[in-house]
Specification:
alpha/beta, 4-stranded antiparallel sheet, binds pyridoxal-5'-phosphate, 7-stranded mixed sheet
Length: 402
């Protein structure tokens, strides 16, 4: 009796890497909307909450899943290599970084926690926060009270976080300024150049929650002197939930002690039995183990779309849509809550009616096929690059009150 079990050839999935067949090659400003099925159904103006996914993102996720279905672990080395080289290079290009400065995270909070828990605090140190931060950028600092680290709060002025007010909070025990690059509640866009110059003047680290910035606005971390930056992929990146990345400027890589380590934090060989806890020489040290490749394949497609469209042009497109919305909203007697000063605008536009209830208005809009958010009692729209003026027209038509 032959004991030889016929071994089928390993099926090489030619679509292993979505570069081969995601359809992005044909995408342009003229047809980008056709890659977003939601565009046919709704005026979706809520990308600052959860961004709608495109067909290339879905295709890329499926490619990865199909590869594991058909080949199990056989392409594991290629996955790791592709994620580290190709995906990180593209993310780096989008934000003006080097791929060695990128680590995958599952959400913004995870990156912020790397900084909060990895920083070499001394009792009596302090960190500066704004008093309107999303709680992701609050709780990780509050927890440091147990290590003797305090928070110094910058009071917003009518929703604005002024650099002079940050300056007034800095003292000789300040080690870090941690801010949202764009505030979630009102879209206030931080003056990053001035904030980073202030930090440099005082030898203070600048840490950003950039989930409301990257994907909508152009970012150049190196030019702006950012030390650490985190964002989840599920908003303006239009990438799957559970993806994100953390930027750690290479000059400060050794400042943080990675708070959670595992077999991916070290330059591992395939021989897992050599135990040497020597961190990788890049930001990959913050990835303790296998990453969410399924989601990352989708994020890669989303990044490729943005690179194809161009971050500067995406920013111009989005600001033009919010300009158009402002004009129409004022005609309908809505009040603009977001700052309209030069340099302070972003993809998030908040507004309200003097008497109308925001929650009721949102409900009516939803029934009319228009999606937006309520934040702090105000209405908030967040159009992305696949939206156009017809979406804003639908909003303006469906808004109650003249
Ligand atoms: C400014 C800001 N930071 C963080 C988050 C949450 O991020 P994550 O779930 O990626 O940690 C949000 C929105 O949910 C946000 O608006």
């Amino acid at each position: 009796v032959s004991s030889t079990i016929p071994s089928p050839a390993v099926s090489v999935n030619t679509a292993l890497f979505p570069e081969d067949s995601s359809g992005i090659e044909t995408l342009s400003w003229d047809n980008v909307a056709s890659f977003f099925p939601i565009k046919q159904r709704r005026a979706y103006l809520n990308n600052a909450s959860i961004g709608a996914l495109s067909t290339p993102v879905i295709a890329a996720v499926n490619h990865f899943m199909e590869d594991v279905r058909d080949n199990g672990r056989n392409h594991y080395p290629e996955w790791c290599d592709y994620a580290d080289r190709n995906i990180k290079s593209r993310i780096a290009r989008l934000i003006g970084a080097d791929r060695s400065e990128i680590a995958f995270v599952k959400n913004t909070t995870e990156g912020l926690v790397h900084v909060a828990n990895g920083f070499p605090w001394k009792e009596g140190d302090n960190v500066i926060l704004a008093d309107i931060e999303y709680p992701s950028n609050v709780y990780c600092w509050m927890k440091l009270a147990a290590r003797g680290v305090s928070i110094r709060w910058v009071k917003n002025r009518d929703g604005r976080i002024l650099v002079d007010d940050i300056r007034a909070q800095i003292d000789d025990r300040t080690r870090m300024v941690s801010l949202s690059a764009v505030q979630f509640s009102n879209g206030f866009r931080q003056d990053l150049a001035a904030t980073s110059a202030l930090c440099a003047e005082h030898g203070v680290y600048l840490n950003l929650d950039a989930i409301q910035w990257v994907g909508a606005l152009e970012m150049d971390v190196r030019a702006l002197g950012v030390h650490f930056m985190s964002l989840g992929g599920h908003k303006w990146m239009l990438a799957p939930i559970g993806t994100g990345f953390f930027y750690c400027r290479k000059e400060v890589l050794d400042v943080l002690d990675p708070p959670s380590v595992g077999y991916h934090s070290v330059d591992s060989t395939e021989d897992h039995m050599e135990y040497v806890l020597e961190y990788r020489r890049d930001a990959g040290r913050f990835e303790e183990a296998l990453a969410n490749f399924t989601g990352l394949w989708g994020m890669d497609a989303a990044v490729r779309i943005q690179l194809a469209l161009g971050a500067a042009r995406i920013e111009r497109h989005i600001l033009a849509l919010t300009d158009y919305a402002i004009e129409g909203l004022l005609k309908k007697n809505y009040r603009i809550v977001s700052s309209r000063r030069a340099g302070e605008r972003s993809g998030n536009l908040s507004f309200r009616h003097p008497t109308g209830d925001a929650v009721e208005i949102t409900q009516r809009l939803r029934e009319a096929g228009v999606d937006l958010a309520v934040r702090g009692g105000n209405l908030r729209i967040s159009p992305s690059y696949y939206n156009d003026v017809t979406d804003i027209d639908r909003l303006l038509e469906a808004l109650p009150f003249a």
